[in-house]
Amino acid sequence: MLDPVSFSEASPAPVPAQVRALQLQERACKPPPRWPRFFITLLVLALIWGVLTEFRLDAMVFGLPAVLAGAGLVFLMPATPGWRISPSGAFRFAVFFAVQSVLGAIDVAMRAFSPRLPLSPGFRHYPLSLPMGAPRIVFLNTITLLPGTLSAEVEADEVIVHMLDTQADLAASLGALEVRVADLFSLSPQSENSK
Amino acid sequence: MMLDLIAASLVVFGTVFFIAGTVGLLRFPDIYCRLHALTKADGLGLALVALGMTLKAESFGEVFRIVLIWFFVALASATCGHLIAAYARQADREGKA
Amino acid sequence: MTTFFGIIVVTLLVSILTGLIRVHRGPRPADRMMAAQLVGSAAVAILLILSRAMDMPALLDVAVVFALLAAVAVVGFVVLASRKVS
Fold it and tell me: What does the pLDDT average to over A124-141?
């Protein structure tokens, strides 16, 4: 079970939380080689620089060293496990992201303009079940765009969420977001999510 | 002409959300509520203005620049909101305003 | 269209100026920092509009710099302020 090859295929079956934690730890200890990441970063940065300067050759005097140094940062950063992104999951996530951020902004705008100022703010805890690394970071950053929630702090394996209205159903909205993020990284839904 | 109209309405809606952000920043009772106003309302405000301006852009380079600007700001604002909230909670715990 | 853009830009500027009340009132340093962030994103929006209204594509590059610096400012603030707190 703990053979590294078997879970490099990012599709964990429902497993007890302890085994799962072990697996995630193991996965975090096995960073992929950094050269592919270096070249991808190099390509992306070079493309950005190219479009910004309309591919002028004289601009490369500054661009080339900057792009090389930027991509070189890959070697200074702590190694993180790589994640597969599912294209269809990314599309569904983008739609969800767009709809929720519009709803979130309308919600907060209505509250701001309302003469009564309808707020009953407070903090709530929510257990994190997505694996460390990119999935968790995407999850935490998107919480802030959902209507009425803001990720305030992370403590151990819990996120402390600030809510504009503590009566709102936190588990439902964050649960929906978790499903979308798992879909984005083609992780299968995990059984221990439902605690 | 149609495109102008769509661009103009996007920019108007974006401006309304910027105003909402400012109103929230002034009216909301504490720092965490104000962060909601800032990250959500301003984020959508800028997204709408940026979308409207891409419709009026005259070259691919301009569209790319506008999208890049929106992407930087959107990426930074959620992370900055989290950082400020975490900092404020730390300050709360240590009993300093 | 130019008049329209003019009205929008002035509205956004008024919104920024109103937001400065929060910088004045505080009460916490982070409140002031947030108002500054508001100035940053509204300024980016103004620059996007002006670059079209005045037909100055270079203003878009100014907006790119603004967008990047606003994020650096907040991170810098949090790092320095946390050092003072703890």
Answer: 86
